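Suppose you are handed only these lines of text.
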Amino acid sequence: MKRVLSLFTPSGRPTLGNLLGAFLPSVRLLPAADCVFGVSDLHALTSEHDPALLRERSLELAGLAVAAGLDPDRCLLFLQSNVPAHAELSYLLESTAHYGEMQRMIQFREKSARQSAVRLSLLTYPALMAADILLYQATDVPVGADQAQHVELTRDLATRFNNRYGPVFTLPHAVHPPAAARVMDLADPVAKMSKSVDSPGTIFLLDPVDVVRRKIMRAVTDSGTSVEFDPEAKPGVSNLLSILSACTGTPVADLSPGSYGALKRDTADAVIALLEPLQRRHAELSADPATLEAILRDGAERARERAAGTVTAAKEAMGLLAA
Ligand code: TYM
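From them, the structure of the protein bound to tryptophanyl-5'AMP can be written out as follows.
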């Protein structure tokens, strides 16, 4: 049986990119796999953050994950900071990783270039992400394209550790959705849609539906009039086609909206058809915070049990515990 794992960072409000790149592909894997999902709140400390908001954002993200279909009866759902083994294994993996390979990570280079005081945890973050994955011996990691390099690094660290100390870790691989592995900003379709960038082209999962429609109808398209999938020459149109394909499950090649206007209308309808039920379920959950707290408490307890065996095996292999 596959073991699936993915985490989501509460560093801003979740977007359509998170839904199409990670939540929905994860939901599709639920029936055929042993699934672990979490809110990576420790990862949110890698950049300037508001302590008063962090917990609120973490609970909102967990609620949205459930509302998107990550049913806690069929998977494990928890907050990363409630499972101390993540930080513990992260240190063991930092002691397996090299400074140079951390510095080469694209996300580190991009994010550190935008900040004057770069937190050390931003550099070491991929070791924590590797710990998230390796703790549960995950085989499949559903993520957007932006996380592919971190999953590759996880494989490298696991391989190096296993070769040096003994076979402790399963090698995972990234699973990307067929469309929308990289949802682009509607107002700037050569940039990734991001929860940490304040742009009129970002669709937040809790945006009112009339706002969603307006953002899509105002999406930047390209010169010309023909609707063609060509991300280089027509990034705006190609982004809308990818979103429409991911929302409807119809391959891009089979979509044929006649005009830019029709493409925008169809895309807005399809996105709203996904968001309306999600927002309804989220509102129900928000009205009953005790239920979500109980889900996360139970998830953390089960995660702690599962993670303990891997940490012990890693410590034994490294000579920290008697085997
Ligand atoms: P995060 O919180 O930035 O994003 C959560 C998930 O959403 C995907 N995603 C996108 N997919 C398509 N288009 C987009 N515009 C887009 N924006 C975000 C991300 O690829 C991700 O799958 N480091 C991770 C969280 C993490 C993790 C892990 C993931 C921590 N530990 C272990 C997998 C396994 C992150 O910050 O994702």
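What can we learn from it? The longest strand covers residues 2-8. The domain at 183-284 is CATH 1.10.240.10 (Tyrosyl-Transfer RNA Synthetase).
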